[in-house]
User: Which sequence fits this backbone?
């Protein structure tokens, strides 16, 4: 079943939710018991690769005056570094997956990543809002990012006709969309006179946004081009292209994990008094996986295992590929769909969803609510 009607997905019956909770908790504890030096060595190795790739990339772009291929290799190396920094390092470290190491630099409290988004703002709306209220319409602001209509839960507006182009623009400027997300959300909630307790004032949010964005612009588009001397313009262009490649990659992977054709949406009423097992159930229905080789999973920050990430956001992500077969078996045991597929298939269904909901949908006959027997 896909999200063609509003609020057709029922909570998992209490008996099955208890069984699901027990099975997934057991898997979580068994995996956590293995976490240790192997995981610390892994993330430190990835960070070394990320940093040296960035250094090589920036130096190689400057050497472009010798031969243009040095510049090309430099752009690709810098893009590779930025992808690792954002996906396998930044995203996972800021989820607290490595806080147990007590490392002064590799921890969720102080880590700052290489993009325009303020880390503290991201930790709030992503770690708390998105992961707590995944796909709950009106509470999960990541569903469509406030720009795209991706289900019948939202009314159609004329602007939705052009949302394929909006999606393309969002993908190209994804770091800036993410950076502005918290600030835009505060403005929207303020207009609606929402009574939610604010984490920061509008002034503090603006200051955080412009401070981090300013530092990022200075680093990539002023400082490094300036110190390159006569290679100012090639380095400026190279930094722009590296950011563009990173934005396209991260946007595509994130959309494949959240907005494939068969993911489910939920109403706030459905999720009242939700048990942990029912929360697990919602995470599984609201996420999609992408199949691939080891290098592919690393480049996605293991968000190719989005189902496992939504179930266990604080477990070191490189263990998700080990957990995935067991999660799939648990899903099958409880009659829960496990959405996984090749990258090309998953991305095709993302585009299909974006296009489908760019047109007004007439009310459809509600489908039978999903239960373990469907």
Assistant:
């Amino acid at each position: 079943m896909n999200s063609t009607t509003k609020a057709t997905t029922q909570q998992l019956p209490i008996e099955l939710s208890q069984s699901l909770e027990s099975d997934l908790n057991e898997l979580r504890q068994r995996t956590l018991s293995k976490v240790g030096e192997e995981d610390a060595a892994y993330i430190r190795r990835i960070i070394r690769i990320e940093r040296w790739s960035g250094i090589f990339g920036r130096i190689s772009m400057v050497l472009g005056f010798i031969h243009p291929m040095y510049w090309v290799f430099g752009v690709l190396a810098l893009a590779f570094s930025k992808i690792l920094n954002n996906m396998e390092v930044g995203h996972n470290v800021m989820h607290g997956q490595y806080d147990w190491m007590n490392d002064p630099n590799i921890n969720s409290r102080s880590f700052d990543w290489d993009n325009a988004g303020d880390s503290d703002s991201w930790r709030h709306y992503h770690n708390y809002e998105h992961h707590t209220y995944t796909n709950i319409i009106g509470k999960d602001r990541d569903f469509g990012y406030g720009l795209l209509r991706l289900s019948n839960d939202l009314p159609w507006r004329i602007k939705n006709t052009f949302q394929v182009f909006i999606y393309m623009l969002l993908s190209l400027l994804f770091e800036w969309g993410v950076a502005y997300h918290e600030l835009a959300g505060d403005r929207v909630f303020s207009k609606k006179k929402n009574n939610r307790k604010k984490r920061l004032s509008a002034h503090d949010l603006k200051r955080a946004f412009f401070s981090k964005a300013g530092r990022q612009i200075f680093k990539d588009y002023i400082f490094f081009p300036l110190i390159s001397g006569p290679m100012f313009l090639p380095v400026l262009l190279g930094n722009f292209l590296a950011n563009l490649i990173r934005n396209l990659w991260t946007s595509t992977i994130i959309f494949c994990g959240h907005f494939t054709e068969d993911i489910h949406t939920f109403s706030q009423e459905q999720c009242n008094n939700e048990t942990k097992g029912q929360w697990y159930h919602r995470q599984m229905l609201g996420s999609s996986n992408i199949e691939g080789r080891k290098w592919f999973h690393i480049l996605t920050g293991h968000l190719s295992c989005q189902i496992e990430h939504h179930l266990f956001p604080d477990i070191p992500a490189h263990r998700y590929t080990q957990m995935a077969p067991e999660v799939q078996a648990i899903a099958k045991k409880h009659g829960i769909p496990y959405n996984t597929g090749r990258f090309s298939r998953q991305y095709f269904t993302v585009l299909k969803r974006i296009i489908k909901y760019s047109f007004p949908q007439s009310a459809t006959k509600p489908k039978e609510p999903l239960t373990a027997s469907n």
